[in-house]
Write a structure and sequence with these properties.
Helix content: 40-55%
Protein name: Vitamin K-dependent gamma-carboxylase
Oligomer: single chain
Keywords: Acetylation, Disulfide bond, Endoplasmic reticulum, Lyase, Membrane, Transmembrane, Transmembrane helix
Membrane topology: Multi-pass membrane protein
InterPro entries: HTTM-like, HTTM_dom, RmlC_Cupin_sf, VKG_COase, VKGC_lumenal_dom
Structural class: alpha+beta
Organism: Polyodon spathula (North American paddlefish)
Length: 669
């Protein structure tokens, strides 16, 4: 047991021995290097994902905007003060990196970080939550005992032991991130390959598609591989025998994620956390291999760590050892460290499954997105969003552009944000002579390639609707999971259509109707019932048509229609249409491309008209082009050239582009 887990059964046989175990003296080297890397990554993250580079865009004084704080009393400070908040956070991250006034730096970082975090729920995600947790943990740890300015200023802190619980908390936190993410993926949508089906199209998976089909690559590599890695990564990193293999796969996984998703510093942070699972003295062994002339710039290799009051030292076994270390009596500090470890780990295991408490935040998926570690399990696509307002005095009805008065689109999926948005819109509409405004939302969403369905009841005024964080949302529509098997039929239907024909699958509840407009660009649009029964009203004609399962009808272009669900159960239907304008454009672009190829290879016998000369002169000659088709052709050619240039770029070119991009991002401030 000691060889596998680093402890004996007797070490946990009593609370006192358990406290001694968690406060066992441990080399500070690995913790110090992680502190430096985490602080450095946060220094880079703050201007980017935290928003320092666009503070004026988000918090401009006097800007009319709807905000979504966790607590409604939280409001942004004036712009100048918000800059100060970000500067304090940036200085705190820099202090953590350098280990300079470490405890104060941690407090500066986490106080401002969590304020910014709670100020905007629309920016929440799992890795932003993780950054705040790590910053909170580091505040209580002795991570400035190695490779820090505090160590240079204070000899007692320099190269001093740290208690084992410092490593235990961080390692367990990362284990939870992996393992709970794996448990969340034990979901039929993930195992069936519906959550991230589109990822198989990415060029990173091209090597796998040499062996598997695209569908099998999605199921086996994207979904199956992600599930296995998340479930096993924490265990494999913990044990010595499996750690080298785990390091390879985990590093490959996070490097791929850095290219697949726009997740800022998350991939690099997880790469840094992997080093915590190695032996705590790995930096000493690693940096000892560097030339001696670099020793001043690198972390120290010698001497061995010195005695620290934060640790509990056992009774020495010999008189020689007694001269080096004196036994330590358990103090309140040691007991509090052990208690913090136990309570924190228990809370972190509990939080991802605490949705039965915060039921008001549950939607088609459970909980506030951010602390559940259900990363990438649910994909969403929105087909239709309509906001209707009604004057409570005159009864006048109007419509709002979805997203008006806000910078975010995430309110569409969360009942708590929708309630805040409705209250904000009601307040703003009073400035436009709308008395006692009522706000109605009709939001359609597809979860993991299911039918497009309503997420909230469109008949309720959300301004007056009841909502509580601790009670189920009464105006949330249920996810139609009974219709999930239809997803296999969707692919069969799509395979029967040609490349110009599009299809949208809809499911609706009894007693509700969908009002839709068929654009004149959409020729040959038909509606076919897959299940249930519909009554379709053509508004301009004033006629109703009843269609049952298996029947279809043609819809006139340029007109509104309403599809009423009249069956006792949910109705399922699909729109099949052809975008005639887009099809004609594609045909014209294809002709231009073929003409370009014939002229270039000399097979074109007719002289090229002057107005088409730009297709030979290059994509940078479209300044004076007036023909819209020719302009579209040149834009597409330019885009193709840019993509090819990026793919063929050398490592130096990519690094230069990356550096310039970050430079201009920082220079804006």
């Amino acid at each position: 047991m000691k060889r596998l887990f680093g402890l004996e059964l007797s070490d946990v046989s009593s609370w006192q021995k358990f406290v001694c175990l968690l406060n066992r003296p441990t080399d500070p080297a690995s913790l110090g290097v992680f502190r430096f890397l985490f602080g450095m990554l946060m220094v880079v993250d703050i201007p980017q994902e935290r928003g320092l580079s666009y503070v004026d865009y988000k918090y401009l004084d006097g800007m009319v905007v709807c905000r979504f704080p966790l607590f409604n009393f939280l409001q942004p400070l004036p712009l100048d003060w918000m800059y100060l908040v970000y500067v304090i956070m940036l200085l705190g991250a820099l202090g953590i990196m350098l280990g300079c006034f470490y405890r104060l730096a941690c407090l500066m970082f986490i106080s401002t970080y969590w304020y910014i975090f709670f100020l905007d729920k629309t920016a929440w995600n799992n890795h932003s939550y993780l950054y705040g947790l790590i910053g909170f943990q580091l505040t209580f740890m002795d991570a400035n005992r190695y490779w820090s300015i505090d160590g240079l200023r204070n000899a007692k802190k320099r190269n001093a032991h740290v208690p084992l619980w410092n490593y235990t908390v961080l390692r367990t936190q990362i284990f939870i991130v992996y393992f709970i993410a794996g448990l969340k993926k034990l979901d039929f949508d993930w195992i069936g390959g519906y959550s991230m089906h589109y990822l198989a199209n990415h060029w990173l998976f091209d090597p796998f598609k040499l062996v598997f089909s695209e569908e099998m690559t999605s199921v086996l590599v994207v979904h199956g591989g992600g599930l296995v890695l998340d479930l096993t990564a924490g265990y494999l990193l913990f044990f010595d025998a499996t750690r080298p293999v785990a390091m390879v796969f985990v590093s490959y996984f996070h490097c791929m994620n850095s290219q697949l998703f726009s997740i800022g510093m998350f991939s690099y942070t997880m790469l840094a956390t992997s080093l915590l699972f190695c032996y705590p003295d790995w930096p000493r062994r690693f940096f000892s291999k560097f030339p001696a002339c670099l020793s001043r710039a690198l972390p120290m290799v010698m001497p061995a760590p010195q005695h620290s009051p934060s640790c509990v030292y056992p009774e020495p076994e010999s008189s020689e050892a007694a001269n080096l270390t004196k036994p330590t009596k358990l103090s309140r500090r040691h007991r509090l460290g052990a208690l913090f470890t136990v309570l924190y780990i228990a809370e972190q295991f509990f939080m991802p499954y605490s949705h039965f408490i915060t039921q008001g935040y549950n939607n088609l998926t459970n909980g506030l997105y951010g602390y559940s570690w259900d990363m990438m399990v649910h994909s969403r696509s929105h087909q239709h969003v309509k906001i209707t307002y009604r004057d409570g005095v005159t009864g006048d009805i109007g419509y709002l552009n979805p997203g008006v008065f806000t910078h975010s689109r995430r309110w569409k999926d969360h009942g708590d944000m929708l309630k805040q948005y409705a209250s904000c819109l009601s307040h703003q509409l009073k400035n436009y002579n709308i008395s006692e405004p009522e706000i109605y939302f009709d939001i359609w969403v597809s979860i993991n390639e299911r039918f497009q369905q309503r997420i909230f009841d469109p008949r309720l005024d959300i301004v007056k609707a009841d909502w509580s964080p601790f009670r189920p949302n009464p105006w949330l529509m249920p996810l139609l999971v009974d219709l999930s098997p239809w997803r296999t039929k969707f692919q069969e239907i799509e395979d029967t259509l040609d490349n110009q024909t599009e299809v949208v699958f809809i499911a609706d509840f009894p007693g509700l109707h969908l009002e839709n407009f068929v654009s004149e660009d959409l020729g040959n649009t038909s509606l076919q019932v897959l299940q249930g029964e519909l009554s379709v009203e053509i508004v301009e004609e004033g006629k109703n048509y009843t269609i049952k399962e298996g029947e279809k009808m043609q819809l006139p272009a340029g007109e509104y229609h309403k599809a009423y669900t009249v069956s006792p159960g949910p109705s399922c239907f699909m729109y099949i249409y052809v975008n005639t304008t887009e099809t004609a454009l594609e045909q014209n672009l294809t002709r231009l491309y073929e003409l370009q190829e014939r002229v270039r290879n000399g097979t074109e016998t007719e002289p090229l008209p002057p107005e088409l000369q730009p297709i030979l002169n290059g994509t940078g000659t479209d300044v004076n082009v007036t023909d819209p088709v020719l302009k579209a052709f040149l834009r597409r050619q330019r885009k193709i050239e840019e993509i090819q240039k990026r793919r063929n770029a050398t490592i130096v070119d990519r690094f230069t582009r990356f550096t310039i991009k970050k430079y201009y991002l920082l220079r804006r401030r």
